[in-house]
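Example record used in the benchmark description.
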Amino acid sequence: MVAANQWIKIKAPATVANMVCGFDILGFAVNNPYDEMEMRWVERTANEPSITIINIDEYQLPTDPEKNVAGAALLAFLEELDEKIKESTITKVISSSNTEKIPTTTKIKFEVKINKLIKPGSGVGSSAASSAGAVVGANYLLGNLFSKDDLVRFAMNGEKLASGVKHADNIAPCIFGGVTLVRSIFPLEVVSLPSPQLYVTIVHPQIEVRTADARSILRQKVLLKDAIKQWGNIAGLVAGLMKSDYDLIGRSLEDVIIEPVRSILIPGFDELKIACKQAGALGGGISGSGPSIFMLSKSKEIAIAVEKEMNQLYDGIGLPHHTYVTTINQGGVEVEN
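Model output (structure tokens):
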């Protein structure tokens, strides 16, 4: 357990959700971009709030914990923390060589500084990074009382605040690292998947697509023939990752249900996808609800060639954008004293 009043630093990675065909169940973390956070715990008095949020970025997000995704995740964390304290499983650090059990009457307050380097509404897990980073940091401060599955459950409250739905396809890879499969939400079951070396190229057109809006346009009924094709692609993608079969990965990166609807929200999407595959990408598609688009490649050289195609297309239509060439982050949220 980290001593009271001592700040820790947190890096919470961006994530790519869905992986084209795996709507709400597949995702992976990337090494760039990421959010930076600082966090500490203090003993609070009866009249103090249990969470203080300090924004040190330009986005002016709410600091009321009930309206901030990091705050919502921490409130869920604190709800179950009382039981942990009652079980006397938590120890207070008085100094580097002196510890004692925290009395059950002790009230914990978390203070969180957030520097969002993942732009809200970008489609690469901005809300997930804040939610996951907050609960991983809180857990670290108090001696890692909770499991990663517990932390995913807490952080999903942040996603519910952002989108109206408790989905974990961004949260799970952000906390576990690597590629994850969310087999079930209730009860929660997260499966970590192996993957070959993959390079990731992401373009973020500077438009905003709200997750809640992107969900609202989805069809509520799916044709059986489309469902069968989608199931085959999901199974093929998982098998391709586990077998390091790049060709199978590429063939499986196809979505016949969600992408055809959501792609209308992203200028140049169809042309971009064709150009990137012609440049050598295995495939890719909309990251989360968009507007970011990701492509997977076997080598850094191909990933850079894909980035060139992305820049050319969006420069050509005069749409400001950011690009990243990165790799899959295998460790998830990082914490250091």
